[in-house]
Amino acid sequence: MMDDLLNRQNKDGGWSYRPGGASWTEPTCYSMLALLAAGQPLEDENVRRAAGWLGSRQNADGGWSPQAGVTESTWVTALVLLLPPELRPPDGVPPIDMPRAESWVRGQTGRESGFLFQLRLRLLGAQVDPAQAFDGWPWFPGAAAWVAPTAVSILALEKLQRRAQAANPSPNPNPNKDLEQRLQQGRAYLLARRCKDGGWNHGSTRALGYDSDSYPETTGLALLALHGAAAGSDPAQLAGALESARRHLANCDSLEAASWLTLALVAHGEKPSAPQQAAHGGTNEIALAVIAAEALRGRNVFVS
Question: Could you tell me which residues come within 8 angstroms of residue 77 by beta carbon, excluding any fewer than 6 positions away?
């Protein structure tokens, strides 16, 4: 799969969703994570070319748009934050400004407030403590929060938190209280959006009077974002989610979904079998399959 992934890299350094297309931010970030998970060094030419493509496309507000034809920064900015800050683009290309990217991600909110917020949650069937505020992340600025961008943003900010703590060890386990509070709000949002079967779909737990079913992809991604201590002090609160992930993994026929579920279960201390689903040609599914395979070998780039 690595050879296939490398052959898909465009001349400009980025990746498309499928071979022959224009470069997009999302498949470029997942492909870079796959290369790094598989042991490619930061000095590798393919990695540097990809860093150059990203560095040349950072917007003035610090974020990234999905592709060159879009001007507004969106959730894909969080994917860039998952990459190492030491990335070195080719000479003459501006480096990625990670602090500005972090500022953009931290500034996004999908919070609905007051009476309308509580009413919407009740209509969706979410079990919510009205005394708490659940502040997730939207797909693009000004929109409502959804599960996938919230999960990716949590993973990105947690990685930044770990890097900061490694660079400046402190007796205080959470020296950046504002960041930790923002992460806790995002985790609470995910926990409130669980479907009745324990997993997650894109955001609605109930529609038209019926309980919504969870999806394998979003169940894996949300559970990955709630790994370890991030899920809270009571491990029983995720028992249903873990069972849902195992059930989805046993029955899904999507390689991308199986990869997310594998990454989540590995992050929660389990060792499922490697995904055996057939690839259908998408760059994201190939990159995520590489990342999942490396996670089973002990290197989960999303949580390490």
Answer: 62, 63, 64, 101, 104, 105
Question: If we measure between CA atoms, which residue out of 140, 147, 182 comes closest to residue 161?
Answer: 182
Name which of 16, 201, 221, 223 is nearest 124 in CA terms.
Answer: 201
How many distinct structural domains can be found in the chain? 2
Say what the pTM is.
0.90
Spatial distance between the Cα atoms of 97 and 119, rounded to a whole number of angstroms = 40
Residue at a domain's end among 107, 141, 157: 107
pLDDT digits (tens, 9 = 90+) for 84-104: 999 999 988 889 999 999 999
Cβ neighbors of 46 (< 8 A, separation 6 or more) are 6, 9, 35, 40
Three-state SS at 67: strand
Does the pLDDT of residue 51 top 80, yes or no?
yes
Q: Are 49 and 9 in contact (CB under 8 A)?
A: yes
Angle at 258 between CA 257 and CA 261, to 5 degrees: 90
From the centroid of its chain, how far is CA 153?
Answer: 6
Pairing of strands 145-146, 137-138: antiparallel
Q: Tell me: do 188 and 115 sit in the same domain.
A: yes
Q: Which domain holds residue 197?
A: 110-304
Judgement on whether residues 267 and 125 belong to the same structural domain of the protein = yes
